[in-house]
Structure formats: structure tokens, C-alpha cells
Design a protein that fits this description.
heterodimer; A: 0% strand; globular; B: ABC transporter involved in vitamin B12 uptake, BtuC; transmembrane helix (chain B); transmembrane transporter activity (chain B); ABC transporter permease (chain B)
């Protein structure tokens, strides 16, 4: 029984570390997609956030500062995506593809430029990482230690789900953002500023994706490496689709996919179950969801369609 | 239309501007990183044109990119955005690799077998997405992205299987049989000096012409383009749009799959376990955009990208990160994507001037 509880604790711990980056990015993706702008650049935004986060934390010694800076760097890419898609009516998938070239390219470029041509940033001290909660309260290795003595951002990201849900469904801005993703023309007629709403949403999606990326380097990995994000941005997008473009749905999907990543981390290499097969689960599950519950997984009506003001 | 307007309305003009802007942004970043951009670009230029051997290497690098470029260009022409070329490339390469290792046959059978296997694998990978789109109404961009990652992990999984995996450690497969390689004869390799000189580039040119012919000179191509141009109008004209999409997506996938085989059988000879996507499919999107989806232009856009990739690898000689190439390419795509609006602005101004 003790062993079972301890293993359960370990699994929950793994989930608590694997879920926040997906969740932060997925909440960001919800904003962008629901406002009618497809953002497949989430992956690139996470990668730049991962690097800037690690870099700022390394030089300042402050994990929170790094975390915030990571978010801002993602937001900068968000601004680029927003200008291209909203102002210039660019194809949103192509613009997102461009972001996925620029984000990781810039991250490794800057890393090499700053850290003496190395594509990995130096390892962070524990003090420069994000802080853990309840240090010293629980016995190391116990169930409570594994579940509660973890990064506070993990729990904050869960609280953020509630906040985003509230914004989406209980505020005027939330109503506007959902409406401009469905019928921008009607919104414009009623005096809703479609451009402004979409700008806010896309930049916010970049900011949250950047935070998600920064969590990876500031909590999970403790340094930047080019392959540190690999696919997590796309898992976040998958979670949003699986969660029917709702923040609460994306949350459940992220927990499920976080469990997959958690299992992978626990299993490590050289086990009976191939980590590569476990890694496939989020994508396969999302395809199945698209196929079998397609009726309810309705993409926002104006998603991917540029809205150009009548001149 | 005046001469000035015909220049302002041509895609090539905006592509050229986008490329220039890409290099300018790259230069700014290099300056910020305290690297003289002129030195870096000179290194890039010499890395490409410095020796005939370098130029041959650029063509070797270009071959798989021309294939993924053709794949994406074909899909654009038929109204689909094949962002899944990445995954189709991977399964094509993987299939060719498995066949290249496990089958024993003379080259005259082995080589076509690997190519057919790769084309089928890529075609099926694309067709699955097509079926989901037609039968279940699943957005193809989303499922392409999912299938890219499934292919990625599938490849890493197969690489580690006992019968495929290289004996004694390492994270790669065995080398494929010599009979499955498409390397040029030893005399030609000795003449060019590039150890991986192969027939891939010639194949790429042949396929570019085939794709051009299918799109522009056949009834099938006309139907596919009609559907791509206006789905509803084509339906009204009696074209089975579902079947049309499926054909286009399968063919586009097959092209990317063959690209994977060309890369494997021409260059690498084995597949390694990768920590991240290699990006041939996404680079193909860039190639297709630079070529404005024209199959023949894909050859030149592919050479451009191949040269940037090969030359970029030598930037480390002047301590410049090779990743500047990715950034330049990203900026180029971004500006091509927004160029349609510039076009409208310029042309409208032209009209006002005429009045």
C-alpha cells in the first residue's frame, strides 16, 4: 500500500511538472483561435520563451524575472503574427509557419551569440529557477512532498484556468472575443473593435506560450537546449482542439497529455513500453477525437479567415 | 496594363523584395551579435560558389527540398495546404530505409522498389488526411500537423527496432544495401569531389516537369485546379470534388515520400533517431512559396534553399550561427505571405496615377 501511494505521488509529481507548459500554451491558443486567428506558431513562441526565460534567469539570478521575460518574448512574436494576420490579412497558417522558423532560429542564434557559440545555455542554479512551495514541510520522497512541494507555477497555472474561464464567459471582453471569432462583420456593425480584440488575443496567446516555454527551462530542464520544446506547442494546439476550443476542455486535455508526458518521464529509456509510442498518444487521441466527436468539435466559424475593414 | 504595372503585379517581384528584406533582417541580427554581416554573407557566398565541389553539394542538398517543394506547390494548386509534407517525407524515408535494409535484390529492382514503397507510404499518409477531410469533415491542416508528429515518433520507434537498428549501440539504423543507393558512379564522384553525388537532383528535375505537365496539360490537372480555384463552382460543373481532393492529397503526399527516399538513398544511407523534426516538409513550404507554386520555379527555389542550407553550415567558420538561415527564411515566408496586400496598395496607387 505504501509503495502504491508513493508511486501515485511520483506520478502526480510528474504530471504537475509536465502539464503547466502545455496548459499555459493551450490557454493562449484558446484566446487566439476563439478570436478567429489560427496560431500554429505556438511552438516557435514557446521556444523563444524557453530561451529568453533561461537567459534572463541566468544573468539576473531571478526565476520569476526570467519567467516573465520569457512571456514577453513570446508576446513579441505574437505581435508579428498579429500584424501579419490582422493588419495585412496574411494566410494565418503560413504566418504561423514563419513564426516556427523565426522563433527556434532566433532562440538558438541568440544562444550561440551570447554563450560562446554553444547551442545549450549554461545550467541554472536552483536559486535562479522558479521556486518550489512548502520546502521542508514534508519529508523528502513522501506523498505530500511529491504532490505539494512542487513549483508554485504549476498550481498557479491551474488557477489561471479559472481566470480564463471567467474572462471567456463572464466578461464583456470574453463575449466580444468569442463573437469576433464567429462573425466579425456583425461585430463590426455593432461597434465592436474587431482588430483590437484580435490583437489583444493573439499577443496574449504569444505571452502565455512564452510563459509555457519558460516554465520548461526554469523548472523542468534547468537549461535551454534546441530540442527542449519539441512538439509541446503542437500538443498544446492538439489539446485545444481536443478540448473543443474551450479553456476548461483544454485543461482536461492538458491533464491527459501531461499524464502521457509524465509516464514517459517516469519510464525513462530502455523500458518495455517505448517512450516513442507513448509520445504518439496525444496526437493519435486528437485525431480520434476529430473523427468521432467531430460534430461537437466545431472550429470557430471565422477561424483562419482574415477580416479586412471595408475601405 | 502598363509595363510598370505588369512588374508590380508579378509574384516574382514581391518574392525578390521578400528575399532582400530577409537578408537585411539577417544582417541586422548579425550586427547585433557583433558579427560583421558582410563577412558572414561573403562566407555564405564562398561556401556556395567557392569551388565546383561546393556547388555540387548545393544541388545534392536541393534535391529533397525540390520534392517537398513540389509536394506543397501541387497542393496549393489544388486548394489544399499540405503542411503535412514533413510527415509524408519521414514515412517515405522510413519505408525506403526498411526496404533498403531488409530486401536483397539487384539494384535494377531494389531502387525502384524503394521508391515505389516510399511513394506509397507518403501517398497513403496524405490520403488518410484526405479521407478524414472528405468523409468526416476534419480540417486538414489540423490532422496534417498531428500526422507529422505521429510520423516523427513512428520513425524514432522503428529506428530502435532490433532488426533495423545498427549493431552495437549508436542511435541509427544499419546502412541500407549498396543496391538501394542512387549514388553516381565512382568516376563521377571523383570528378565532382562531393562524396554523396547522386541522381536525386536529376530525378527532381524530371518530377518537376511531370508535375508541371499534369497540372497544366492534362484533364486531371484541369479538374484539380478547378476544385482548387473554386470548390463550389467545380461541383456545379459536375466535378467530384471529394475524389479530386483525395487524388490531389495522395499525389502530393507521394511526392514528399519520394523526397524522403531521395534524401535517404542519395545522401544519408541510414536514418538516425532525431531529437526534433528535420524540417524538410516545412522547408518545402518555403520552396513552394518562393516559387509561387510553379513546379519549374520549384527547381530554382529548391536550389536557393539547398545553397542556403549548405552554405549556412559553413558560417561557423566566421563564428556566425548557422541558424541565421532559418531566421532569413522565416522572414522571407512572412513577407511573401503579406505581399498580396502590398500588391493591392501598389496597384491601386498605379491606377490613381493613371487618372
Amino acid at each position: 500500500m505504501d509503495v502504491l501511494i508513493r508511486n501515485l505521488g511520483l506520478l502526480i509529481n510528474a504530471i504537475l511538472i509536465a502539464t503547466p507548459p502545455l496548459l499555459l500554451a493551450a490557454l493562449g491558443s484558446c484566446f487566439s483561435e476563439r478570436s478567429g486567428v489560427v496560431n500554429i506558431g505556438i511552438e516557435g513562441m514557446m521556444t523563444i520563451g524557453a530561451f529568453i526565460g533561461a537567459c534572463v534567469a541566468y544573468f539576473s539570478g531571478n526565476g520569476w524575472l526570467g519567467f516573465f521575460a520569457g512571456g514577453l518574448s513570446g508576446a513579441v512574436l505574437g505581435v508579428i503574427h498579429a500584424i501579419a494576420c490582422i493588419q495585412f490579412g496574411a494566410d494565418q497558417t503560413i504566418s504561423g509557419t514563419a513564426i516556427n522558423f523565426i522563433g527556434p532560429g532566433l532562440a538558438v542564434f541568440l544562444c550561440k551569440a551570447i554563450f560562446d557559440n554553444s547551442s545549450d545555455s549554461p545550467a541554472l542554479d536552483t536559486a535562479a529557477k522558479l521556486p518550489k512551495m512548502f520546502e521542508g514541510v514534508f519529508k523528502s520522497g513522501s506523498f505530500g512532498y511529491n504532490v505539494f512541494s512542487t513549483y508554485s507555477v504549476a498550481y498557479l497555472s491551474f488557477i489561471l484556468v479559472l481566470v480564463v474561464w471567467f474572462v471567456f464567459y463572464k466578461t464583456k471582453f470574453g463575449m466580444h472575443l468569442r463573437a469576433v471569432g464567429e462573425h466579425p462583420q456583425a461585430c463590426a456593425t455593432l461597434g465592436v473593435n474587431v482588430y483590437l480584440t484580435r490583437y489583444i488575443c493573439v499577443i496574449l496567446s504569444g505571452f502565455l506560450a512564452g510563459l509555457g516555454g519558460a516554465f520548461v527551462t526554469l523548472a523542468t530542464v534547468s537549461q535551454f537546449r534546441p530540442a527542449v520544446i519539441v512538439g509541446q506547442g503542437f500538443i498544446a494546439i492538439a489539446a485545444v482542439i481536443f478540448g473543443k476550443f474551450k479553456p476548461q476542455g483544454a485543461f482536461k486535455a492538458c491533464l491527459l497529455f501531461g499524464l502521457c508526458n509524465g509516464i514517459k518521464a517516469l519510464l525513462g529509456a530502455g523500458n518495455a513500453v517505448s517512450p516513442n509510442l507513448v509520445s504518439m498518444i496525444p496526437y493519435v487521441v486528437t485525431i480520434l477525437a476529430l473523427v468521432f466527436v467531430v460534430g461537437s468539435t466545431r472550429v470557430p466559424a471565422a477561424n483562419g479567415k482574415p477580416f479586412l475593414k471595408a475601405r | 496594363m502598363s509595363k510598370k504595372n505588369s512588374i508590380l503585379s508579378s509574384n516574382a517581384f514581391y518574392t525578390l523584395i521578400s528575399i532582400v528584406i530577409g537578408f537585411i533582417v539577417g544582417a541586422i541580427l548579425l550586427s547585433i551579435a557583433k558579427i560583421n554581416p558582410l563577412d558572414a554573407y561573403k562566407q555564405l557566398f564562398n561556401g556556395v560558389f567557392g569551388k565546383p565541389k561546393f556547388m555540387v553539394w548545393c544541388l545534392i542538398y536541393a534535391a529533397p527540398l525540390i520534392f517537398t517543394g513540389l509536394s506543397v506547390a501541387f497542393s496549393f494548386k489544388t486548394g489544399v495546404f499540405n503542411i503535412g509534407a514533413e510527415g509524408q517525407f519521414v514515412v517515405g524515408s522510413l519505408t525506403a530505409c526498411v526496404l533498403g535494409i531488409l530486401i536483397k535484390a539487384p539494384a535494377i529492382i531494389h531502387v525502384p522498389l524503394c521508391f515505389i514503397g516510399a511513394a506509397l507510404a507518403g501517398g497513403i499518409w496524405g490520403a488518410i488526411v484526405g479521407v478524414l477531410k472528405i468523409k468526416k469533415g476534419v480540417n486538414e491542416v489540423l490532422s496534417y500537423i498531428m500526422f507529422n508528429w505521429i510520423a516523427f515518433y513512428l520513425s524514432n520507434f522503428v529506428v530502435n527496432l532490433g532488426i533495423i537498428h545498427k549493431d552495437g549501440g549508436g542511435e541509427a539504423t544499419k546502412d541500407i544495401a549498396e543496391t538501394a543507393r542512387i549514388l553516381a558512379p565512382k568516376s563521377i564522384i571523383a570528378a565532382t569531389g562531393a562524396s554523396a553525388t547522386n541522381y536525386g537532383f536529376i530525378l527532381a528535375i524530371i518530377f518537376a516537369v511531370i508535375v508541371w505537365f499534369i497540372i497544366n496539360r492534362t484533364t486531371l490537372g484541369f479538374k484539380l485546379r478547378a476544385v482548387g480555384f473554386s470548390n463550389t463552382a467545380a461541383q456545379y460543373a459536375g466535378i467530384d470534388t471529394g475524389k479530386s481532393f483525395l487524388t490531389a492529397m495522395a499525389f502530393s503526399g507521394a511526392l514528399a515520400g519520394i523526397g524522403g527516399a531521395v534524401q535517404l538513398m542519395g545522401m544519408s544511407g541510414r536514418i538516425s533517431q532525431f531529437s526534433g523534426q528535420e524540417g524538410y516538409g516545412f522547408q518545402g513550404i518555403t520552396v513552394a512559396l518562393i516559387a509561387s507554386s510553379n513546379p519549374i520555379a520549384c527547381i530554382f527555389a529548391g536550389i536557393f534553399y539547398g545553397a542556403m542550407k549548405y552554405g549556412g553550415g559553413k558560417l561557423s567558420l566566421v563564428n556566425a550561427p548557422a541558424e541565421v538561415v532559418d531566421i532569413i527564411m522565416g522572414i522571407i515566408i512572412l513577407f511573401i505571405a503579406i505581399s498580396s496586400l502590398f500588391k493591392n496598395i501598389f496597384l491601386n496607387h498605379g491606377k490613381k496615377g493613371a487618372v
